[in-house]
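Hey,
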Amino acid sequence: MNQLYIFNPDHDLALASDSDHFDAPLSAKQFATDFSLLPLWYAEKYSCIWAERVDVEWFESMKKLFPQFKDYRIVSSYDDVDAIRPWGWNKTIRRTLEKHSVAHLPTVAQLDALRELQHRKLSIDATLYLQSIQNDTLRLAKPAQLLSSNEIAQFVENHPFSILKAPWSGSGKGIIRSLGSLSENLRNRAKNIASKQAGIVAEPLYTVVQDFAMEFRCENGQTRFAGYSLFFSNEHGAYVGNWLATDVQIAERLSRWINQSDLLRIQEKLTAFLTDRVAPLYSGILGVDMFVYQQDNEYFVHPCVEINLRMTMGMVARTFYDTFVETGKTGTYFVEFHKDSSEISQDLQSTLVVKNGKIQKGCLFLTPSNANTHYCARVVID
């Protein structure tokens, strides 16, 4: 099968817009251009990666380091495609592909059903489902769906330290934090979100100790666990990077706070929930974001912060580690923005040591750069 992978990072914004004429902001367009070749690191064998401009020299240098790439191609057209694998499906990417006469696209009705599934109420339902697990690890206040400005004001008044979330959002976007009070500007922003998306989701603000995720794959109506992601966010909740390690090493790190048996029970219950609610309508990768938090000098896990029905940076990190890093080694995967492209120093790659297609140590840039590049993906193996 001739599969074509496309990196469309504006997916979450396009999903919230729900328009096939959505025009992404310039930052998202820049991100898409700079990271167009990122799918190389997670695509299946014999696949094609779409890029508006093909950096032949960079690709050839990667093939010399990693023989895994001998069966991949980079293309700038949509010809002879059997299946499309975008970062995420929405009406915007469908319209783009339809204009290029690509066949076998999901219908508008299918995308409507998929969008409805990606409302944050799915995360709320999953959280309530997981609370049936009888242990002391889970202790959560029920997230609330607020429909009016009065409800928002009342919730913030009753929960001075709270977080408000747009029903359709992800990757730290559409998030409003109330740190004791909500300014007039943020209050108006919350009202605007509630007006445009028929409500807003609210919950108390937790003291986060460690972000992580469980990645899953839905296929043929079934769901299976695909690995752990231990990731880092900035003060605004935006993704920064991942710790690169085996699933066993990640589970061991999380066991500092949470029993591994409890993590396994969460995984099993989520698999059942996703098989029932998601797998009949969705095929592909999805990530369930979680975190360990501290309360009253004890540690607990929030088992379902959000569910992303799309490819995730956590799964990129998981796949990259399993495919291109020597087992047992650890490192970090970074996604970075540089206002000045000259700050992206490819000289760091002089430290790279690769043997039989596996990185033993050093720095590697996963995306090419030039004078117009502002975003880069970088890994450092200890």
